Amino acid sequence: MATARVDLLLGFGVLALLLVCGGPVAAGAVAADGDIGSDIGPADSNGTLSGQVTDAATGQPVENASVIVANLENVSVSVVTTDSSGNYERSLEPGLYVVGAVVAGYEPALEQGVTVLPNETTERNLTLTPRQGDPALTVVDDPAAGAQTNHLWGTVVASDGPRTLEEIELNYSGTGADLTDIGGLFPATNLQVIINGGNPEPISLDSTAESVTVSFDTVISNPPTVEPGDVIGIATIDEPVTNPTAAGGYEPTVSLRNGTAAFTAGPAPFELVNETGTIAGTVTDNQTGERIDGAAVVAANGTGDRLGGALTGTDGSYDITVPPDTYNLTAVAPEYQPAVVSNVTITGNETTTVDVALAPATETFVVAGVDSSAPTEAGEPLVVEPTVVNAGQVNGTQTVSLRVNGTQVGTVTPTLGPGGVWNETFSYETGIDDQPAVTVTVSTANDSATTTEQVYEPVPDAAVGDVDGNGAVTIVDAVRIQQHLAGIDPGQFDEELADVDRDGTVGIVDAVLVQQTLAGLRTPGNATVGVVDTPATVSAGEPLNVSAAVDNTGGTGTIQTVEYRLAATESGLTENTTERVRVVDLPADGSTEVTATLPTAGLLPGEYVVGVFTDDTSRTVQFNVTAPGQSTTGNVDTSLKLFAGDWTTPSAVYTV
Prior knowledge:
- By secondary structure, the chain is mainly β.
- The chain folds into five domains: 11-272, Immunoglobulin-like (Sandwich); 275-358, Carboxypeptidase-like, regulatory domain (Immunoglobulin-like, Sandwich); 365-456, Immunoglobulin-like, CATH 2.60.40.10; 459-522, Dockerin domain (Type 1 dockerin domain, Orthogonal Bundle), CATH 1.10.1330.10; 528-640, Immunoglobulin-like (Sandwich), CATH 2.60.40.10.
- The protein contains six helices and 53 strands.
- The chain has a five-stranded antiparallel sheet with strand order 1-4-3-6-8, with helices on one face. Strands 2, 5, 7, 9 and 10 form a five-stranded mixed sheet that branches. Strands 17-18-15-23-24 form a five-stranded antiparallel sheet, with no helix packed on it.
C-alpha cells in the first residue's frame, strides 16, 4: 500500500481544521484572538486580507460569520469574526491560503488559492447561501488513505434552538473503514470533543468497526448545552482510524443527538485516489534569469475541486503533488506580473516539469469609477470625480485626463504606490449646447471609463409674472407688461416670464392675469405630481422606466423642474439621490406626462422607492429589484434555486 503524501491539502480539509478549532486537539486550547498556528509573521513583511461576507439572496451583510483563513504551506489556521457590516480583516504572513466563511443558517462558502503578498492588501468577498433544510455543515480531514491515521471532524450546530448534547455518532457504514481502535482503557486520550474552542469535554466511547458513539459524562458534569451556530470539533488522538482501501468517493456522517434524536446531522464527503503525480520546476525573472524566492504557485483543475499549491524556496524551485488531471498553473510574486500556464496534464507516479518566467510588474492605473454632480443645469459647473487606482505592484506616475464630448478639458498627473487611490475632482462649465447630455471620458495610459451625464435646460430663478426679477409678483410687473405693449420698454423686463398665460405672446391678458393674482382672484401656477407609473419588479442592470402626470392647478403659468429620485427608503430620498431631471412649462390648468429611464446597475436585490418631486408636491412608489437573470414572476422557490449550493463535491482527495 502506497504511503500518502500530505502535500495536497485541499480546501474542505482545511475547513475541517477550523471546525476542530484550529488543528490537532493535543496542541491545547485555542488562543483568545482566534489564532491557530503561527500564521502571524513579522509585522514589517505581513500582508492584509480583507473583505465582506454577504447573504446571496438579499445582498445584506452577514454579521458574526466565522471567516477561516488557512495557510496551505504550514497548515496554520486563524479565525476572524465579521462585524455588523459583514466586514473582516486579517494581518497574515505572505503565502497561499484557503479562505472560507461559516455561520449557522447558511451553506459555507470557500475560496481556494488566495495569495497574500508582503505589505499588500488582498480583498476577498464571500457570499453565503441560505441553507434549505437542516443539514450538518460537516467535513473530514483524512490525510492518508489505506493506512491508519488520526481523523478530524467538525460541524456547526444547526438546530432551531438550544439543545442538550448527549451523544455524537461518527458513522462510516459502507466505507470499509475500521473504527474499533478508537477506545481503549483511557478513552479521553483517544478521542477529544471541543465546543467553541474550549477545554475537552468529559466523554465515554462505544466503538464498533463502522461507528463510534460518543456519550457525554453525567457523573462529573452535566451534558453540555449547545446553541445554533456553535462549533463542535472532534479528533482522534494517537488511536487512528483504519481507512477504506479502495479508491472512490465516501460519505461518512456525523450526528449530534439529544438522547436518540439527531438535531444536527449530515455527510462528511471525501475521495480516495489510486495515485498522484508531481508538478515541479523553477520560477525565474524573465529579464535577468534570476530565481525568485517566495513565489506562490497554484495548480487548479477545471472544476476547482482539485487544487495544490507551494511557495518557491531560495533557489526558486517548487513541487506540488496532485491527482492525475489537467491543471492550470498560476505563479505570482511581489513586484512581478502573474503568469498562467494552461492545460498541464499530470499522470500518476510521474513528475511533470513546468518552469515559469515572470515579468517585472509595472504600474497599472485603472479607472475604477466616475462620479459626478449630474444632473446639472446648463450654465452650472459639472463636477467630475473619478476614482483611479494603481492596480500594479510598483510605484508609478501617469496623466489622468478628462474629455467632454471628445475635447480634453483637464489633466492631472498623480503619483501612486501599489494599491494607491486618487479621486480629486475636475470641473467643466456647461452651456446651452450641452443639453440634454454630455459624454464624459476619464482616461489613463492603461484604462479609461466613459459615462453620459445629463445636462438640463435652465430654469428661471423668478416666477412666471415676475418680469422685473425682484423675487415677487407685484403691480409693478403688470405696469411693465403694459409699458412693453405700448412700446415703452422698461429697463428691466423678462419677456418669457411676462407670458403669464403661456400662449406664446405677451398681451394685455397677461397684465390682467397678474393683477387678478394680486387681487386674490387667481392662484399662482403650480406643478402637482399626479399618478406615477413604474414596473413593480425589475432585474438589476435593466432600465427602470418611470412616467408621471404633472398638472398645473393654478390660474397662471409655471415653469418648474421635475426630479426623479431613487433610494432604498422614502427617508433616503434626499437631494443627492436625484437620477434624472425634466423641465415642464405649463399654462394655467395645463397638464403633461413626463418620463425618465433610471439606471439600476449596482443595486442589490430588494425593495426600493422612486420619488417624483417638483417645487410644490411629490409622490413616491415602491418597486423591487431582483438578481440579474432571476425570474420576476415572484416565484420564491424558483429564485432560491439560483443560490442553491452543491454539497456533493468531495471535500478532500487523498492517495490510496
